[in-house]
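Input record (one chain):
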Amino acid sequence: MLTGIYFIDQKTGWVTGAAGTLRQSVNGGESWTGHPLETQQPLYGIHFPSATDGWVVGGGGTILHSADGGAHWVEQASGTSAALYAVQFLDAQRGTAVGALGTVLATRDGGRTWVPQVSQGAVTLFDVYFTDEATGWAVGNAGALFQTNDGGAKWVDRTLPCGKTCTKVIDLLKVRFTSPQEGWIVGERGMLYRTTDAGYSWSDGTPIAPVSLFGLTFSDATHGWASGENGTVVHLQAGK
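The corresponding structure, as predicted from the sequence alone:
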């Protein structure tokens, strides 16, 4: 099973998966080449802040780093055994990883050290996204939504309520912001949430697909895509 995907440009992309699976494409996804790794842990999240600097996270607290565009990968000491589901770097030095049991790890020295941050809960966090060095969001199971305005020193619980027609609080699986004001979240049962005021309020959940959505990406501020089970892909347009 493949669990994560990241394209550096139109040609070069990576996918992660079970049992240490890491594959690269250099032709826009027409073909994929495996990169053998020492770990057999499932790999869940991948991010390249630059063409040469890459990060992968996975089960058992796994953090892998490449400094040569993915040719070689070195395991980092995360200090946790919790599964890590997502990682984001703002630049070569500053990054955040999130995962099970409310785990939030931050580095300010390019991954040489990872410091635990307090998330005020033991929920599983599936994704993290910073719009700048101070402001970030993490989403997780049972509607978990956390915000930081100080670079992660403190995370404020902004978990979404169930809503008028809700019978079960859904898992929130992916979060992205296209500007400091406008953000999007997708999750279980094809639900989509949107904010236009920097996350101070969010729209009621709207089902845009009959399946859970695990992927969310934007090519620009107005055009995005959500992906999920059964090969589902939904085109998103701001203002529509």
